[in-house]
Write a structure and sequence with these properties.
By secondary structure, the protein is an alpha+beta fold. It folds into 2 domains: 48 residues; 151 residues, Glucose Permease (Domain IIA), CATH 2.70.70. Helix content is 21%, strand content 36%. A hairpin with a 3-residue loop joins strand 6 and strand 7. Helix 1 runs antiparallel to helix 2. The protein is elongated.
Length: 216
């Protein structure tokens, strides 16, 4: 139900919430101020729980499709030069995640991890054009049967201060499996071969492991 990366924060939040409610109950009458404090704390706790939720998803497990690696909205579809791994032109599809989205990252396709690298960097807003090359980020390449090498990049945003990446080079992975987590607002870029048939358009809302990004 909740992602393991959030266990510590959830426990701390519950302890703080309970402690503050007990203190308020001890020193305040059950008046409007007590109830206001309780409501504010309840909303904050709800947001923490929402952020670290990890709904069970069943991927199509189909080599002929690539699924979205994250929940969010498609904000970029364009041909770009990918300089880190391919060093040629690729079709970029970017999905932006708000703090309210599920922030679990999932493998868009099954195969072997050909490349996995972490890059420290800045914390520009996730929709900034230079965020994909200047922000803190991880780059992962999955060698798939039908699409060849598929690169996805986890990018930290202005609020995201930690990227978790589970992909290890040489590892065999399954489409839709948990590949990492990004704390707070951020984005993920997919780099696909030029000419790939896309099943999404700009501003589409997508779900990780379920929404089809591309197909053959």
């Amino acid at each position: 139900m909740f992602h393991k990366e959030g266990y510590k924060i959830i426990v701390i939040s519950l302890v703080i919430f309970t402690g503050l409610i007990l203190v308020a109950n001890r020193f305040l009458d059950k008046n409007w101020l007590f109830y206001l404090i309780a409501i504010v704390l309840g909303v904050l706790l709800y947001l923490v729980l929402q952020f670290f939720r990890n709904p069970e998803r069943t991927a199509p497990n189909d080599a002929n499709v690539l699924t979205s690696p994250v929940d969010g909205k498609v904000v970029v579809i364009e041909e770009v030069y990918e300089a880190e791994y391919f060093k040629d032109k690729r079709l970029q599809v970017s999905v932006f995640m708000s703090p309210l989205n599920v922030h679990v990252t999932r493998y868009p396709g099954g195969g072997r991890i050909a490349y996995s690298k972490y890059h420290p960097g800045k914390y520009l807003v996730a929709w900034h054009p230079k965020s994909s090359t200047e922000n803190e980020r991880t780059t992962v390449v999955v060698n798939t049967d039908k699409f060849g090498d598929v690169l996805y990049r986890q990018i930290a945003g202005a609020l995201a201060k930690r990227i978790i990446n589970y992909a290890e080079e040489g590892q065999m992975v399954v489409q839709g499996d948990d590949s990492g987590f990004i704390r707070f607002g951020s984005r993920v870029d997919l780099y696909l071969p030029i000419g790939t048939k896309l099943d999404v358009k700009l501003n589409d809302v997508v779900k990780g492991a379920q929404s089809i990004i591309a197909s053959i």
